[in-house]
Amino acid sequence: MKITVVGTGYVGLVTGTCLAENGNDVICVDIDQKKVERMKNGEIPIYEPQLDVLFDRNIDAGRLSFTTSLHEGLDHGEIIFLALPTPEDEDGSADLKYVLGVAEDIGKYIKDYKVIVDKSTVPVGTAEKVEQTISKFCSSEFDVVSNPEFLREGYAVEDFLKPERIVIGTSSKKAEDLMHRLYKPFVRSGNPIIFMDEKSAELTKYASNSFLATKITFMNEIANYCQIVGADVDKVRIGMGTDSRIGKRFLFPGIGYGGSCFPKDVKALHKSGQDVNHQFKILDAVVQVNEAQKTILFPEMKNHFMGDLKGKKIGLWGLSFKPETDDIREAPSLYMIDKLTEAGAEVTAFDPEAMPNVKSQIGDQISYCEGMYEASKDVDALLICTEWSIFRTPDFKKLKAEMKSPVIFDGRNLYEIEEMTEAGFRYSSIGRKHV
Ligand code: UDX
């Protein structure tokens, strides 16, 4: 099928590349000339496991190309995906200026039937607004479909190619048939394509992300309580998770959720409730608890140093908001860096992918190291903010020998408490009993 994807950010690029991988003829449109030039030269602008291989393969096969011309894109695709940014407004709502701006251009330009697909995470009622905007300028036939993405960073290719479910919101049979034809090859295993109205599809995305953020936050509160009463959150987590109504996933406590989706989507759903006098009290609490969770280890660190972190050298492992990504949006590490440097500590950090992004955001506020052991050398304490695999089984002997004092604050519960005690570390983690 002929597909156009408008917007080559994270979602657009994964969508375009994976649709090409399945044999579709895809053109990706972006207004950023430099970025389009780079992509035309085979350079991929984001880090996402597996994506580079698919990107190269589909460009070489002639199924994936790039342009800055929206008109060229609109001529090409029978299905036009909108994968445009919906940044958080000052009041927490999603700003639709990019989506509606392109909708207007589409209305002015299209001459034959097109299916316009909202792939961006957009508030309930956006498909209707897009439809009205296009209609204002357009006499040709078209349908607007809501098709939210559920891609996890780090697993986006896998999630796209083998989705657990695909949600399509449309009230048009013609659009439904086209979308079914497009997505059928992705659900050969029997996973469902769920059709519904546009508003329900839009809300499904917000409700899913907000629920997951709530699940994590609930566990973080349980973890904080465990710490006070001397229970072990890992035991509680397993005890709870084996109830299939609860499920094992997304119960891992830590120093808070971050990223581009959960923080933004929770706030946007909360705000869109307020707009219609509906108060999402749970989401209010989720935002507050998560904010506090990001720096939950700071008071403990401060206590350890008798209230004075001035001149202390702190090693930091992990800067990205989660492993397998270079994304640092709302990353807990940044909140901890702020607190630590404000208190006069010196931070030496290592992350496998995210250091360039952190450097361009906060510059030389911290030092960046070539490897994990360089970051922990001669430090008064080590702080772990992201659970990259390489941090899971360090050489504890080497680590202890090279640190100034063997003190670890672990925001991701990577190690067993007994093994740390045996190895001679003073070890703190989240919601577990420490001896
Ligand atoms: C999320 C959704 O999972 C995805 O479906 C949606 O489309 C986009 O948002 P993503 O932000 O890439 O994906 O990351 P995810 O793996 O969901 O993790 C989000 C945050 O929750 C991370 O900060 C992670 O560290 C945290 N988390 C996750 C926990 O603290 N505990 C857990 O048990 C799981």
What can you see in these coordinates?
It is a single chain. The chain is α/β, with parallel strands linked by helices and about 425 residues long. It folds into three domains: about 200 residues, Rossmann fold (3-Layer(aba) Sandwich), CATH 3.40.50.720; about 90 residues, N-(1-d-carboxylethyl)-l-norvaline Dehydrogenase, domain 2, CATH 1.10.1040; about 130 residues, 3-Layer(aba) Sandwich (Rossmann fold), CATH 3.40.50.720. It is built from 18 helices and 14 strands. A six-stranded parallel beta sheet has the order 3-2-1-4-5-6, sandwiched between helices. The protein has a six-stranded parallel beta sheet with strand order 11-10-9-12-13-14. Helix 1 crosses helix 3, helix 9 crosses helix 12 and helix 11 packs antiparallel against helix 12. The longest helix is centred in the middle third of the chain and has 32 residues. The chain is globular and about 70 Å long. The protein starts with a strand and ends in a 7-residue tail after the last strand. The relative contact order is 0.09. The model has no long low-confidence stretch (mean pLDDT about 95). The structure holds uridine-5'-diphosphate-xylopyranose (UDX). The site of uridine-5'-diphosphate-xylopyranose (UDX) has 19 residues, from helix 9.
